[in-house]
Amino acid sequence: MSRRDVAIRRPSVKVDELAPASPRRSRRRASMNLQLADGVVLFSAMVAINIVRFGASWPTYSLPYYLAGFAGAVAIHLITFYCGGLYEQELRLGRRTQLPAIAGLMLSALLIVAAIELVTGRYVIPRFNLPFLFVLGVTGLGLNRVIGRLLRRRAEGPARVLIVGTQQEVERARAHLDENLTGITVAGRSSGGRQLLSDVRRTGATEVLLVSSRALDELYPEPLATLEQAGVGVLKRVSARDTLLGLAGVREVGGMPFVALRTHTLPRSRVRFKRLVELAGVVVTLPLWLAVLGVTAVYVLLAVGWPVLFWQDRVGREGRPFRMVKFRTMHPDAEEGVGPVLAKHGDPRVVASCAWLRSTRLDELPQLWNVLRGEMSVVGPRPERPEMTAHFDVLIPGYSRRHEVPPGITGLAQIYGRYHTDPEYKLGHDLQYLVNWSPVLDLQILARTIWVVLSRRV
Fold first, then answer.
1. What residues make up the domain containing 116?
2. pLDDT tens per residue across span 76-98
3. What is the DSSP letter of 352?
4. Are 248 and 268 spatial neighbours (Cβ–Cβ below 8 Å)?
């Protein structure tokens, strides 16, 4: 069967049948309660340290000023924790310790507070208090998560595990679970594939363990996406063959190595953090971009006439359409009679005097407007036209994953690929970007983009 004959498999079981709305609401409520508990711990620690050091009479500032400053510092900590993914729902099996993440984010928040105090010259949290606040904060936040796990288990009951594999593989895995892990219930066995969703519904499983060494082709993108949306954790046993991929983040479940499978690689909190960082960068450098945009607009007006801007429907985050803007570089009615086609090197539709605008990517600069509106990012997968996206969704399994974040003006596929690079290869770059996203990676891509622009490698 050719790839053109492949159809997208739609789930026969609804998400609400796998995970009712009330448990999902309780998980959101638990996350909010955890944030509140963290805030109480941090605020109490700040007050307690001051009392131990200074007694009832605090120096320099009034009590209301200190309390207001402590509240502001707590807000900075909670925002840092949220952007760092500390409030994302954790899997119940193979849970890794959160203390390293807590310590790293706590240190980052304290550095932000210290930097603000240094700039303003008003030390609401005395510098000598910071090391003690770090120790008390990490300890208190760690205890909050231990208590949260106990309350979650009490509210949701023990984890119900559905094991997927052959009869022999399931029996071997079950023996390991019975010997090494308490507090779980093995709900049953499944052969996987299209039957998996029905088996999860039938058994009420909260976690799925894939112990078979078979490929994931029959689970990805469906029913894996439906299970994730329903809050059902899916873990795959790590085999010797899997280690060739250089896996990171391996978890231990009943003495067996597993990796968590997720169709969404970037949590919502990280997407919002990315948006905040990029928006700040665009606003700070806006005068520079306005000057470049003005000069380029005058050139386009002289070269191709009016209109200077070209608007086109593209597919954005989560598949939502939006109107993308760029400088016009093609002849009027360039697609008349041919319809939508992919851009290519030496495209005859491009006005000759504007070819350099495309090779230097200057025609993309008006998309900063889309960035300010929240429709695009500075860095991310390039947005495609709806016709192309619908075509690639059928041909390339998992193509929709590139829509997890707003599309970008530049991206990993643009600095390593070219106009004629196959869409499936570009998808590999896009997903690699999502898996490894960080502000540092964005800076590296921007620096590499400058080199691509100067060398005119398209």
1. 21-155
2. 999 999 988 889 888 888 777 78
3. G
4. no
